């Protein structure tokens, strides 16, 4: 949904925009082509440097990559003397580039080490499946993969690792396939892989921190565009924007309005609900079929307290 993201951010000459999930540089390149703006890319994956070099060479003086997490974008930009920006783009989740690299361990269609880290630090998916107890594994797979057979999958993992450590993606796929029925077009391991990837990379926590950081960074009239790919992500984005746009979420209609803390809206929605990819894009790029874009414009109101996002947990 690159075209829709660029349209939402409406780059203008002289503006500073943030591509918080740089990846292979698709959004950054499109934003730079749309106007004589500057783009700051952020990515925790050290393998993206070659893509950053290419974008920088094609746009001298207008692009810079910062190594780190987009959840820390306010601190990362403050360190280079930028306190406010005109737009922030976020494309949540694993990138096609990472999925296509078998040695990263994201893909259930290729055999590789069971890693799934977006950076080169922290515990791997193999660490989780080989050390967490059955109950915790079941919770992870159910909560973050929305897998109805989570208990059976966890039980199968624990039984399999007694025989030998689970270190390869193919091993895990075969274990899950024993207890999850295949459905047309969906690999039985899809939801289990999603759950492990989310936990390994703290993706939902990172998303919440990124939304709060963007709220702090964006100038009045600045735009935020977020593309998500599954319901857990979209729920966090929707909750954040609903709250920041003044819609009371999670409050009881039986309580007096005075009991709900009144804050000036810090965002205005650019369009109602989420935009979906066009039929043409979904056909050309099947991975985009589940994408949802939500976008909003910053008001002049102060940023809300950070702890407000705990309600989205």
TrEMBL record:
It is found in: Cytoplasm. S-adenosyl-L-methionine binds at residues 25-27, 43, 70, 91, 98. GO terms for molecular function: rRNA (cytosine-N4-)-methyltransferase activity. Residues 278-288 have a biased composition (Low complexity). It holds the Pfam family Methyltransf_5. Residues 278-313 are annotated as: Disordered. InterPro entries: RsmH (IPR002903), SAM-dep_MeTrfase_MraW_recog (IPR023397), SAM-dependent_MTases_sf (IPR029063). GO terms for biological process: rRNA base methylation. Keywords: Cytoplasm, Methyltransferase, rRNA processing, S-adenosyl-L-methionine, Transferase. One of its GO terms (cellular component) is cytoplasm. It catalyses: cytidine(1402) in 16S rRNA + S-adenosyl-L-methionine = N(4)-methylcytidine(1402) in 16S rRNA + S-adenosyl-L-homocysteine + H(+). Its EC number is 2.1.1.199. It comes from the Bacteria. NCBIfam families: 16S rRNA (cytosine(1402)-N(4))-methyltransferase RsmH. Belongs to the methyltransferase superfamily. RsmH family. HAMAP family: 16SrRNA_methyltr_H. Specifically methylates the N4 position of cytidine in position 1402 (C1402) of 16S rRNA. This is Ribosomal RNA small subunit methyltransferase H. It comes from Ferrovibrio terrae.
């Amino acid at each position: 949904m690159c075209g829709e993201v660029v349209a939402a951010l409406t780059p203008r000459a002289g503006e500073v925009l943030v591509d918080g999930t740089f990846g292979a540089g698709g959004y950054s390149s499109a934003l730079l082509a749309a106007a004589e703006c500057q783009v700051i890319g952020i990515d925790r994956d050290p393998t993206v440097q070659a893509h950053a070099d290419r974008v920088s060479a094609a746009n001298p003086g207008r692009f810079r990559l910062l190594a780190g997490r987009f959840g820390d974008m306010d601190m990362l930009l403050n360190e280079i003397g930028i306190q406010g920006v005109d737009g922030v783009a976020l494309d949540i989740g694993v990138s096609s580039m990472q999925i296509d690299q078998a040695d990263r361990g994201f893909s259930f269609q290729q055999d590789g080490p069971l890693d799934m880290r977006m950076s080169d630090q922290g515990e791997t998916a193999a660490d989780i499946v080989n050390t967490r107890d059955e109950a915790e594994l079941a919770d992870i797979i159910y909560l973050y993969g929305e897998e109805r057979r989570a208990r059976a999958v966890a039980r199968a993992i624990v039984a399999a690792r007694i025989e030998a450590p689970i270190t390869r993606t193919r091993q895990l796929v075969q274990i899950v396939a024993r207890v999850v029925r295949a459905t047309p077009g969906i690999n039985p391991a899809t939801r289990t892989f999603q759950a492990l990837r989310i936990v390994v990379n703290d993706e939902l926590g990172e998303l919440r921190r990124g939304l709060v950081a963007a709220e702090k960074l964006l100038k009045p009239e600045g735009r935020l565009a977020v593309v998500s790919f599954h319901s857990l992500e979209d729920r966090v984005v929707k909750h954040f924007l609903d709250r920041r746009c003044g819609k009371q979420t999670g409050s009881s209609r039986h309580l007096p309005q005075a009991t709900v803390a009144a804050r000036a809206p810090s965002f205005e929605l650019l369009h109602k609900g989420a935009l979906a990819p066009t039929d043409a894009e979904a056909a050309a790029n099947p991975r985009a079929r589940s994408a949802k874009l939500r976008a909003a414009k910053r008001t002049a109101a102060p940023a809300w307290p950070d702890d407000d996002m705990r309600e989205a947990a």
